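Records of this kind hold a single protein each, on a pair of labelled lines. Below, a sample record shows both lines together.
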Amino acid sequence: MLRSLTASRHLVRALATHAPSAGAPATRHTWARQEIQQIYDTPLLELVLRAAGEHRVHHDPSKIQLCTLMNIKTGGCTEDCSYCSQSSKYSTTTKASKLVDIEPVLEAARKAKANGSTRFCMGAAWRDLAGRKSGFKRILEMVTEVRGMGMEVCTTLGMLSPEQARQLKEAGLTAYNHNLDTSREFYPSVITTRSYDERLDTISAVRNAGISVCSGGILGLGETDQDRVGLIWEVSNMPEHPESFPVNALVPIPGTPLEGNEPVKYHTLIRTIATARIVLPTTIIRLAAGRNTLSEAEQAMCFMAGANAVFTGDQMLTTPCAPWDEDKAMMARWGLDGMRSFEQSNVAKKEGARLEASDAEAQTVTNMAADIGAQTASSSRLTNGHKRSLVLPEETNPIPLNDQNAWYYPSQGNDDSDEEPLTAGTKGGNWGKKTTKGSRWIRRGKIAAWGPGMDEWEEEERARKRVKLLLPQENRSPSPPCLPHLQSPSPPLVSPYPPPITQHLNYSSFVMDKSVTHSFRSSLLDELEQATNNLIEGEATMRKAMGRMWQVIAEDADKKVGDALDAAEPIVSLKREEEDEEGEDERERRYSSAPDLTPSTHKLFLSERGPPAQFEPSQFVTPEAQLDRLEKSVAIIRELQDDGREYVERLEEIREGLGDVRAQRNVIWEMVREHAVKELQDAAFAVGA
């Protein structure tokens, strides 16, 4: 009995440790390079928005992992990495030193832990561990001692053999850093003493030993966008995504071949981080070298794009690092918290279940055994000892067969209880309870908490059929697509479409259904886009008309009056007697030569033939009242113009949204077609076999 409980305990621990989190989609390991290139070339703000959404699915956006790096063996490396000041091939200010003792390492680890760091990394400048038995033994002791402090331990020691990786795992190593640096194509331009495949072999040895892999790259080596995409593609197609992906910005060091390289552009750094977050959704993306050159706002953008770990402390290996005090103050201003040790799920999978959960797991196993025993005994009594029925821990929801409404409108619950708690913000009222009190609405005849009633839907369906019979030619409305593994998450309030006639249990039958094809080739989006374009054109015409009106109103009356006075004949003031003696022709000639003193606003109410017809006013309106009304009318016109401008902006957003819907439908259709082709290929291979 004790042995079976122990085995069950190990099983529960394995399931709890390795099972994917509910609601989080599985990570892909079959990315095509062209797919990643398309993601990388997405407009920057849209790319960051998508990466931020992906980040929030798999990570807590309010937490950042703080890591500290220590150089335990400096300089004298036989490699020729073009960016590194520790290479013996170049003349730099970095001096070679021996492997440090254990006590300084432990002192640095204690200081890092006291300042909030949860991961302590140790780096040694050499090609591999060949011929360094005493040094390797000392490193194993360092790993064990630092791990005993409750910190995650990471090392970067060059190339490893499988046996060395196994010993590091037994010593308690959490992660091993071995960067690929750049793409396979550009790699020979940076390093010649170690091949790309040798780096991949070391990563495989680390992964096979059960150690988390930390592998990233360096930006600013002279690579192109295609090389950055190639680096992410190499990492994304590994059998298991790295636990962390460091993103380093080159710090040019005098004496190295890359000392004259320009700093990497900030938008390139953001694009790389965001693309890596989308392609490697569960991986920790770590801002490493070069972070101290970024402003606080630029660092905030990096975290928005998906970065969730930094190196902090006195320094990196040979380059400056942001100090603890500045980072803690920055995180306090942003409302960020540091991660705890072994908090990430990828690390937890490697480390196994938590020690503090052992007692709870043992109690869970005991309770499960008791429940299974009780259910088995009850089943035996019911079957008189002749049969033993299989007892499932939970009821499974089968695919509905005849109930089309249950397929189209997902159920909101199967209980009749009205005891759900009030949601936040209701303040005791009835607002917002239609969704929380789902069972009540189902009992009242609603299909679901958000759906129409059954009677309403049947009445609409009968009316729809009558209209179709009256039409000379049937005009089919596209039915909402229903994929085999998905239910509609949010149906419309009153659906104009009936549920799909056929439920498809595989992709191939789904693609070959003509009604489904018709739904994806719908003309509804075309009609909506055409209507939106017509409205935008109408608003443009209205804007032009109002612009001409404002041009008339804004005329400079004073300037025109001055010009007219200069060009006109001098006005002769006549006395009353002389005016009476003046002939009609002379009076008309004198009036026509006078300047036009009519204000510009008054011209709006005059025609070419003169003033409009006079009507007997019902009441006398003073000129001041007329001007006041005119000013109010002009203010109303200005408000209408502002409303029209905002209306056009909303129409533009609608048009962009329709374009996004069209693109998403195309993406879904291509995905379904790919799955259907794969199903048909598998079926063909099965028949051939």
Observations:
- The CA atoms of residues 261 and 285 lie 24 Å apart.
- The chain has 25 helices and ten strands.
- The longest helix spans residues 623-688.
